[in-house]
User: Which sequence fits this backbone?
C-alpha cells in the first residue's frame, strides 16, 4: 500500500497542537484520512492517546496501516464527525483537529468521481451511508440543482449549468464525471472555459458538498467539539480549503469567544443564496460550559508558505484557524 496524501501545514499543526503530556485528555483527529497529521502529533507525544475519526472505512484501514506501531495508541472510529460529537461522552480532549480537505486518495485513487480529470462513476461519497451524486442528479429539479451549484459552488453560471444538466439527463447521457464535465463546459461562455480553473471545478465542489452534507455537518460539529474541549489550555484547530468553510469556522470561533456580532452570520454571502433551502443554517450562540472561555489564537488565518505550496500544490488554498480554551479566573 502506497501513501498518496501529504498533510498540509505540518509544522504549524505541530506548533499549535503538540500534545501536552501533563494533560490526560485524548487528542481527537476528526478527519483522520491516512493519518498524516495524527502521526506527526504522536511523534511529539509518544505516550498520548488519540481518537481517529473518519466516515470512510477505507481511510480507517489506510490510516491503521500507515501509522504502523503508533496504531496501538489510536482508537479508530468509523463515523461522520458530527455524529461522533453528538454521542461523545469520553474524557475531555485537550487537542482537536479538523482537516476539511479531500484526501489525495479520494481524488486520485478511489475511483469515486471526486475529480474532473478522470472519467469515473458519478459517486462523490465519503461514506456509502449517503446517496451518490448520480442519485442526487437523477431526481432533483432544475431549480434546486441551480441553487446547489450557486450556494455551494458560488458558481455565477449555475442556472445555465443546471439547465444543461437536466437536458442531458433527460436524454440519458449523464452517467460519468466525463459526461458532467462535457455538459458543464458546453453550458458556459467560451471565455469562461479559458479561465484560471476548469469550468467544472465549482460544480464538482457543489455536488460533493451537497452529497456529503459537508457544511451542515461542520456547522453542527463545531459547537459540540468546542464545548467538549478541555478548559486546561485545550486547543482546537480547523484547516479549511474554500471560503464557505472558512467563513463558517471564523464566525463559529468568534461566537464561541463571546463576539455577539458573529451570531446570526452565514457561511454564504449573496443575499438570495442565504434564503435558499440549501444554505447552511445561521451561526447560533455557541455556549461554553460555565467558567470556561475561548480565546482565538489566529486573528488572521495561517496559510502555507511559498515553499510548502511549491512542494505540495494541493496546500495552496489551505487556511488554519486555532482557538484555546481556559478557565475563567474567579474574582474575589
Assistant:
Amino acid at each position: 500500500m502506497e501513501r498518496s496524501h501529504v498533510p498540509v501545514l505540518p509544522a504549524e499543526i505541530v506548533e499549535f497542537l503538540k500534545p501536552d503530556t501533563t494533560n490526560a485528555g485524548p487528542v481527537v483527529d476528526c478527519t483522520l484520512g491516512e493519518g498524516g497529521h495524527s502521526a506527526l502529533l504522536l511523534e511529539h507525544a509518544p505516550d498520548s492517546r488519540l481518537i481517529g475519526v473518519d466516515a470512510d472505512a477505507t481511510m480507517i484501514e489506510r490510516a491503521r496501516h500507515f501509522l504502523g506501531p503508533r496504531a496501538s495508541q489510536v482508537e479508530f472510529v468509523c463515523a461522520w464527525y458530527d455524529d461522533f460529537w453528538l454521542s461523545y461522552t469520553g474524557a475531555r480532549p485537550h487537542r482537536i483537529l479538523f482537516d476539511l480537505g479531500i484526501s489525495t486518495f479520494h481524488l486520485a485513487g478511489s475511483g469515486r468521481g471526486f475529480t474532473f480529470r478522470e472519467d469515473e462513476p458519478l459517486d462523490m461519497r465519503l461514506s456509502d451511508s449517503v446517496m451518490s451524486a448520480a442519485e442526487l442528479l437523477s431526481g432533483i429539479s432544475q431549480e434546486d440543482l441551480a441553487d446547489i451549484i450557486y450556494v455551494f459552488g458560488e458558481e455565477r453560471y449555475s442556472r445555465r449549468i443546471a439547465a444543461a444538466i437536466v437536458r442531458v439527463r433527460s436524454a440519458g447521457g449523464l452517467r460519468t464525471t466525463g459526461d458532467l464535465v462535457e455538459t458543464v463546459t458546453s453550458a458556459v461562455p467560451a471565455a469562461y472555459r479559458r479561465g484560471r480553473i476548469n469550468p467544472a471545478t465549482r460544480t464538482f465542489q457543489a455536488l460533493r458538498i451537497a452529497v456529503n452534507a459537508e457544511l451542515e455537518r461542520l456547522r453542527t460539529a463545531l459547537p459540540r467539539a468546542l464545548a467538549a474541549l478541555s478548559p486546561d489550555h485545550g486547543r482546537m484547530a480547523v484547516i479549511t480549503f474554500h471560503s464557505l468553510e472558512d467563513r463558517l469556522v471564523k464566525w463559529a470561533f468568534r461566537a464561541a469567544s463571546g463576539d455577539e456580532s458573529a451570531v446570526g452570520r452565514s457561511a454564504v454571502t449573496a443575499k438570495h443564496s442565504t434564503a435558499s433551502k440549501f444554505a447552511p443554517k445561521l451561526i447560533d450562540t455557541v455556549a461554553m460550559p460555565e467558567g470556561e472561555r475561548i480565546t482565538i489564537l489566529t486573528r488572521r488565518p495561517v496559510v502555507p508558505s511559498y515553499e510548502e505550496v511549491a512542494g505540495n500544490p494541493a496546500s495552496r488554498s489551505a487556511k488554519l484557524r486555532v482557538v484555546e480554551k481556559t478557565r475563567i479566573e474567579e474574582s474575589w
Remarks:
- The chain has a mean pLDDT of 91.
- The chain has two domains: 10-99+214-327, 116-212.
